Amino acid sequence: MIELSLAQMAQGLRQKTFSSRELTQAFLDRISQLNPRINAFITVTAETALQQAEQADARLAQSDASPLTGLPLAHKDIFCTQGVRTTCGSRMLENFTAPYSATVVSRLEEAGMVSLGKTNLDEFAMGSSNESSWFGPTLNPWDLNAVPGGSSGGSAAAVAARLVPAATGTDTGGSIRQPAAFCGITGIKPTYGRVSRWGMIAYASSLDQGGPMARSAEDCALLLQAMAGFDPKDSTSIQRNLPQYADALHEPLQGLTLGLPKEYFGEDLSPAMAKVLEQAIQTLEKLGVRCKEVSLPLTRLAIPAYYVIAPAEASTNLSRYDGVRFGHRCDQPQDLEDLYKRSRSEGFGEEVKRRILVGTYALSEGFYDAYYRKAQQLRRLITQDFQSSLKEVDLLLAPTTPTPAFDLGSKINDPVQMYLEDIYTLGVNLAGLPALSMPAGQVAGRPVGLQLIGNHFEEARLLNVAHQFQQVTDHHLQKPSGIE
Ligand code: GLN
Q: Which atom, in ligand 1's list, is nearest to the CA of 419?
């Protein structure tokens, strides 16, 4: 049962091969068995999951079900969930229970999905390895010595280990795509504004975007259909019709042109990964796609631009955790100043503090022009590069990361090395574009991610290409070897 795709599970529920309660119980059992080893979940909501499953079974019996009714999922613990604690991987919110649910959460709940719990992440989604979580690192189910990627590492590891068939994630600079790549699953970061950010705890508001993570493009399409769409509660949400993502999956690929940005295949990319990607490109060419080299000359400058803009936004977003209204409060403060200082010093971890310091520095009078304004100008130029290459070709194809999953502990004490990991994902967020990562093979037992980048609102096209690729390959069906 746990190996089925969402679409197959939905069929099993309709044909009464199993009930949602049975399905939910099977995944809960697997979580009890394996989560202590990989630490993918921060909170498991077994009791409410079983109640939701029973309600779903009742809906199914009355033929009042959506395509997602009765299917289990998990939410990255950055999405507010009414009545269930939302920690954002931080001591600051260790005991915070949100008074309302994020739009993404309520939409999936209304569709009848069953939430099994909240997944681990880098603290406030800042990181690329899941090692900055207050709740300890998540381990990669392919190899317990490797990181699962970050920040949505808990979601990616949980899906890869079959603890849940699908999960939500968020992507500010790669946090859906990079862990999807490291854990051998499929994930899509939608166009900025496609999925509501309401109730998603803010890291860098002009970059943050939620999206689905699952084993196949087909499953991501099903989830995105329910997650996406206009939300009046989010001022940057876009009012624009949603295509039928599932229908688009079946389009033939003949006549499509894919651009290969030469800067993404340069010296930063591991040669073993380049080989795997080359084979995937040949497979796509057999499906009728034409490939052509393009250039994104400012690729390397995405790192400094992002690591000024994201911390600047984070420093203002995180000023709300002051120990007064919600979140961690220190014991016996002497005065207001002491309350702020000690609550924030105790509540935030190292990486979050580093970003607040960098961000406030970049925004301070005297440095604003030198750093923040420059970074914004670069952001505009990087966006223009993407726009001009996407005039020449339909989509871009690139690696998701320069290397497969790295070893636990190998980069956590070197922030610059960690930031360099994001070289192929950050530009997409700066430009607000949609991008998908899917498995394309392995190097030394660790999965390799292939990234597809599209023009604004071209999610259907990305899912289409990924689905066609997955129809003729089996990389997305491989099971992680580290836990069985
Ligand atoms: N690794 C990047 C960062 O640390 C991206 C994280 C994300 O997308 N949330 O900011």
A: 1
